[in-house]
Design a protein that fits this description.
The chain has about 120 residues and is of the alpha+beta class. The chain has 3 helices and 4 strands.
Length: about 120
């Protein structure tokens, strides 16, 4: 029986998360979720089990409500980098989940790097 797209996505997500758990040296995780309409990003401290900062295209302050394009992803990446500085985080592991590293996911990572977050 062939794997569905959803099954392949879940396998890819588990593979990425397991690799992060092995190499994580106390750094926080920058987790990205991309839906058909929005992009959301969280800085997660897995040791404490808390979210340190988050940004999303659902926030009216970013001015990209409901947009799911590369421009919106860039603004979300810049916002998370700024909020990471306020939270005292300078470096994090990039958790792309099961999403491929191109397009909007890559735009978030590049904007966060430009904002000063070491990924």
């Amino acid at each position: 029986m062939a794997n569905s797209k959803r099954d392949l996505f879940l396998k890819r997500r588990l593979r990425v998360r397991n690799k992060l758990r092995k190499v994580n040296a106390g750094r926080v995780r920058l987790s990205v979720h991309r839906s058909n309409k929005n992009i959301s990003v969280q800085l997660i401290d897995d040791v404490a089990g808390t979210t340190l900062a988050s940004a999303s295209t659902l926030e009216k302050a970013l001015g990209v409500v409901g947009k799911n394009n590369i421009e919106a992803a860039t603004k979300v990446g810049a916002a998370i980098a700024e909020r990471a500085k306020k939270a005292g985080v300078s470096e994090a592991y990039f958790d792309r989940g099961g999403f491929l590293f191109h397009g909007k996911v890559k735009a978030v990572a590049d904007a966060a790097r430009e904002g000063g977050l070491k990924i």
